[in-house]
Every structure is written in C-alpha cells, then in structure tokens.
Amino acid sequence: MRSxxxxxxxxxxxxxxxxxxxxAMGAAIAGRGLALVYGGAKIGLMGAVADAALAAGGEVFxxxxxxxxxxxxxxxxxxxxxxxxxxxERKARIAExxxxxxxxxxxVGTMEEIFEIxxxxxxxxxxxxxxxxxxLGYFDHLRAFxxxxxxxxxxxxxxxxMLVFKSESGEMxxxxxxxxxxxxEKWIGRPEL
Length: 193
Fold this sequence. Notes:
This protein is α/β, with parallel strands linked by helices. The chain has helices at 16-31, 44-55, 69-73, 87-97, 108-122, 140-151, 157-160, 169-178; strands spanning 3-7, 35-38, 60-65, 80-84, 100-103, 130-133, 163-166.
C-alpha cells in the first residue's frame, strides 16, 4: 500500500475528539511513508487531516471539483491539488490514486463516498480495503445496520466483512495493510435472471 484516501467532513464536528482523530490519522499516514489522498479542502476534518500529514512530512494529494472551490476552500499548501470538472470525476480520481480508503466522521458526502468504494469492491471492480475510523462510537449504529442487512439477507457476510472498523488510526492502517479481499462476488449463488 502506497496511499490512503480519507473521506471526512468539512465540519469540525461537535466534539474536539473528531479533529484530534483527523490530525492523528494524517500524522499516522505520513509517519508510515504513505501518501494521503483526500478531497482537497482546507476546512473541517478535511483540512485537519491534510495539515497533519503535511506537518509530519507527508505527501498530500487533493482532488477538488471546481464547483466546491469557493465553498470548501481549496487547500493551497498541498503536494498536488487537482481540480476536476465534476464530483463524479473527483471520486473516480480519488479511487484511482488510493490503495486503501478510510472514512472519518462526516455527513452524507462522506457516507456516499465510502459506500461507493465498498460497492465497487463488492462488485469485484477492485480489491482495495475500506474502513471506518470509529471515533467516539460514531459508526456504531452504522455497523449495527450492516449486521442487520446481513441478517435480513440483503448483504452477504463476506461483503460485510470487507469493511474494517477501528477506533485508532494505527490499528486502522495495520488492518488496511493486512486486508485480503474475499474470494466472492455479489452475484455468486444467485439464480439466473
């Protein structure tokens, strides 16, 4: 693994622990000699993870759609900042650049980004790891929902197990590095359509 994408909020969140976790993740990524790939903003958790990686001597690659340059504020101190014409191109470029993916606390955009990556893995489009940094139990209910989806036969257990849940950045990076994609496919075991 050479790079890790981090999806997270442009808000700092309600508890200072969220900003601290973003800084710890950025520093941990850089400390392992990995590049950080992220959404290119300078505010909220996004800015904190980038600033911490840069402060620790890491490379940071931002990918920001032109429509969000004013709203999110393009981070001008990055190793490289790419401006894309659309959100779709932003997400595709981040997926291309990163070898693993981590969601920190965030809102709808964060969820949409990590779920798309997970979906692509489930469909066999890539074999890259994806995880949730579960700061202050932020993702506990999401984890319970994913287990519920397995119990209700809308999700296979190997696909649930593709997701890594850790509460500390070093543990998360260890788990991503050790990840082995399941030898299964979404459509195996389904009747012919």
